[in-house]
Amino acid sequence: MLKAIPALTFGVAIGLLGTSAMQKWLVNPQAIATCNKPGISDTHRLVTLTSVVGDTKYCIHTRYLAN
Q1: Residue 36: strand, helix, or coil
Q2: Which pTM was predicted?
Q3: Residues 26-48: pLDDT tens digits?
């Protein structure tokens, strides 16, 4: 039983790091391309979120931003 706890903890940590890395690689180019499209660039902003793992970019409508 005691050997299973470190294995589960290690597995969860690897899974979380893998998920965040894949999110960064998949979301960033798509968000940049979407925000640069004509017509969308007027109403959307490219927002960068910074975390321990790295930066991630999102294309967000301006009505959801408080600026």
Answers
A1: coil
A2: 0.61
A3: 777 888 888 898 988 889 999 98
Torsion angles phi and psi, residue 42, rounded to 5: -75, -30
Burial 44-54 (b: 16+ CB within 10 A, else e): beeeeeeeeee
- The two beta strands, 55-61 and 44-50, are antiparallel
Write b or e for each residue in 14-33: b if 16 or more Cβ atoms lie within 10 A of its Cβ, otherwise e: eeeeeeeeeeeeeebeebee
Distance of alpha carbon 19 from alpha carbon 26, whole angstroms = 10
Q: How far is CA 56 from CA 25, 44, 46, 63, in A?
A: 9, 16, 10, 20
User: What is the identity of the amino acid at 63?
Assistant: R
